[in-house]
């Protein structure tokens, strides 16, 4: 019985100390952290009681009670100090709950093993100095950059699907890496050995939630195409429609997620420790890559992208390019079912075009116009139109496949791009400068006059009379952007990635095709159409409709303003601290300052009181000045600790329950 009573006493003491410490600090902490503080207070409070409290427990009077109160106050103060220091060094929410520690440890071990393997791959290919930050810049010569690019390509290829796709993304970022790296990384192929039909069918059945024969009348078990993330099969629905079924590889999402965690961590580390990482903005690049690849792993997103592109084409009454349509009721996170587009891949379509008597240049122009309309008018566009995603149909038309990677542009960005295209077509450097500054990021003030001069020279070089635009145009444009301290946001980079990939695709169809010239012609035709009387009338009508509510109120408001001006009663009312957030911030600041002043004042008073030589006794051998001095010390400590705790928690009183 004595042991049970002692245990109950200890538990109650811990809970009392913990509750008092949290209440006095005025900040909510997790239960685990609060109980730990109470335990720390008890560990300190027990010995203090033995040191402070008189050993003669039978002594009458208030002295033992005063000593007991002082020891208890010291224990509670120590619990408060424990909470403040814990918040300072291990902020709330920075450590996972205990229940997650074992899974987190397993993930850390797996990540460490993967880190070790990737590091050995990098070192084996000569990339170790760049990862450790010893090599701050790349080679100066073209030959050195070629060798480094080959080493990087080999390392990424050996690293697996996530790193192959990272290399493919880098190969499209002409604004970030040099042509030598573009050339090497473009050779990375998304390939993998096919998985057995049993594994693929298990994924398909799990996603559909019913037997395959209830959905498909026929299903070819040999994959039509194999990639690192998914395999593609041909099938026919019970309704008779021929479809293409895209099935994700089993467990690929977990492997990719593990590598994405490593990629983003590595990106942040390299940006902090290396000059080339900071110049590339590699942390933001890897975060954007991780987001895009996670979307690619969810086939429901691809189905939604596909449906959006199809709907936009129908709204424009554009049937120049054949687009697949998803069967939404059969699509899931790991399975995508869409209509089949019969034809041959673009690389092998030359004979079919000749057989049909179709001019390859017309085919290339049709594909370019489709992508440009998606970019300029729809705001949702195919971001990866490489030759494998383009088919020539049996009647000689063009089919566009694989909408796992799309770009999205808001209306303001599309308007700025349209202005940029008009400025390039008309040779107006000022218009190009204004449009460029609208779409790029400006970390620091820009010398607009110098930028406009550089863009003017750029247009004379690449778009002047007698010049032949080439891919160097994009490289020089990105060089200008970089030289003026600007950076290209991800959505604009997706546009140039799409156009850069499309240029290579169009060269497969028509080697002499001039993408820049055709794009300028497309822009001239579209803006001429928009400038027609009918289009202008519709634009003015839409603008007037949006302005109509304001126009209705305008005469009455003008009359009120003129009347107030005539009577001399026109004034401007400026309300300070009208925003609730400003008032809350100022109130909290004043509160902290007052508590700090009171705490410091209390501490000084405590020192003065304890320094007084004589004074009245509360009881025998218990001076009043000592009681007041220790009380002021306790009060001062509570106030100061309360301020410090609120600073570390930024005034938040939310209990997140994590530790």
From TrEMBL:
Listed InterPro entries: ABC1_dom (IPR004147), Kinase-like_dom_sf (IPR011009), UbiB_kinase (IPR050154)
Q: What is the superkingdom listed in this entry's lineage?
A: Bacteria
Where do the ABC1 atypical kinase-like domain residues begin and end? 188-431
Ordered alphabetically, the record's keywords are:
Kinase, Membrane, Transferase, Transmembrane, Transmembrane helix
A molecular function (GO) held by this record is: kinase activity
Q: Which residues cross the membrane?
A: 6-25, 32-53, 65-86, 593-612, 627-648
What is the similarity comment for this entry? Belongs to the protein kinase superfamily. ADCK protein kinase family.
What name does UniProt use for this protein?
Unusual protein kinase
Organism of this sequence? Actinoalloteichus hymeniacidonis
Q: What is the lineage of its organism?
A: Bacteria, Bacillati, Actinomycetota, Actinomycetes, Pseudonocardiales
């Amino acid at each position: 019985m004595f042991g049970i009573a002692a245990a109950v006493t200890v538990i109650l003491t811990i809970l009392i100390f913990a509750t008092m410490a949290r209440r006095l600090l005025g900040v909510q902490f997790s239960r685990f952290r609060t109980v730990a503080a109470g335990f720390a207070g008890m560990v300190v409070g027990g010995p203090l009681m033995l040191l402070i409290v008189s050993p003669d427990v039978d002594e009458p009077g208030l002295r033992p009670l005063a000593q007991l109160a002082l020891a208890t106050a010291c224990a509670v103060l120590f619990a408060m100090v424990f909470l403040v220091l814990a918040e300072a060094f291990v902020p709330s929410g920075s450590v996972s709950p205990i229940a997650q520690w074992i899974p987190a440890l397993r993930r850390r071990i797996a990540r460490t093993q993967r880190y070790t393997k990737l590091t050995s791959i990098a070192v084996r290919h000569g990339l170790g100095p760049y990862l450790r930050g010893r090599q701050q810049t790349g080679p100066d010569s073209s030959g050195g950059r070629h060798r480094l690019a080959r080493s990087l390509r080999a390392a990424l290829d050996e690293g697996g699907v996530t790193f192959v796709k990272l290399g493919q993304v880098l190969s499209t970022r002409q604004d970030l890496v040099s042509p030598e790296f573009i050339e090497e990384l473009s050779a990375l192929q998304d390939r993998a050995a096919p998985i057995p039909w049993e594994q693929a069918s298990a994924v398909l059945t799990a996603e559909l939630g019913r037997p395959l024969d209830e959905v498909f009348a026929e299903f070819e078990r040999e994959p039509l195409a194999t990639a690192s993330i998914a395999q593609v099969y041909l099938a026919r629905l019970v309704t008779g429609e021929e479809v293409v079924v895209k099935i994700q590889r089993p467990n690929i999402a977990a492997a990719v997620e593990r590598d994405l965690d490593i990629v983003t961590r590595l990106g942040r580390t390299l940006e902090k420790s290396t000059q080339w990482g900071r110049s590339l903005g590699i942390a933001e690049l890897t975060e954007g890559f991780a987001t895009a690849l996670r979307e690619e792993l969810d086939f429901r997103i691809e189905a939604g992208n596909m449906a959006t592109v199809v709907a936009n084409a129908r709204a424009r009454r554009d049937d120049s390019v054949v687009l697949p349509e998803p069967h939404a009721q059969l699509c899931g996170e790991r399975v995508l079912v869409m209509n089949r587009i019969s034809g041959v891949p673009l690389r092998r379509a030359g004979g079919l075009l000749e057989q049909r008597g179709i001019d390859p240049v017309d085919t290339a122009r049709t594909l370019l116009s489709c992508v440009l309309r998606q970019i300029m008018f729809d705001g949702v566009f195919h971001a990866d139109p490489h030759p494998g995603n383009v088919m020539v149909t049996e009647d000689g038309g063009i089919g566009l496949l694989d909408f796992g990677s799309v770009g999205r542009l808001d209306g303001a960005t599309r308007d700025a791009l349209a202005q940029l295209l008009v400025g390039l077509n008309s040779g107006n450097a000022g218009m190009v400068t204004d449009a460029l500054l609208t779409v790029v990021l400006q970390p620091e003030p820009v010398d607009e006059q110098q930028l406009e001069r550089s863009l003017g020279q750029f247009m004379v070089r690449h778009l002047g009379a007698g010049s032949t635009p080439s891919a160097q145009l994009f490289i020089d444009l990105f060089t200008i952007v970089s030289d003026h301290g600007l950076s290209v946001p991800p959505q604009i980079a997706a546009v140039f990635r799409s156009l850069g990939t499309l240029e290579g695709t169009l060269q497969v169809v028509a080697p002499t095709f001039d993408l820049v010239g055709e794009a300028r012609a497309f822009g001239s035709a579209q803006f001429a159409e928009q400038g027609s009387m009918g289009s202008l009338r519709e634009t003015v009508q839409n603008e007037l409709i949006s302005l109509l509510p304001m126009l209705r109120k305008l005469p009455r408001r003008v009359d009120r303003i003129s009347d107030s001006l005539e009577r001399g009663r026109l004034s401007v009312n400026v309300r300070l601290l009208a925003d609730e957030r400003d008032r809350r911030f100022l109130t909290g600041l004043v509160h902290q300052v007052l508590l700090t002043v009171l705490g410091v004042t209390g501490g000084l008073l405590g020192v003065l009181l304890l320094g007084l030589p004589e004074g009245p006794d509360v009881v025998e051998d218990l001076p009043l000045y000592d009681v007041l001095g220790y009380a002021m010390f306790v009060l001062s400590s509570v106030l100061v600790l309360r301020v410090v705790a609120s600073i570390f928690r930024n005034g938040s009183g939310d209990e997140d329950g994590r530790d």
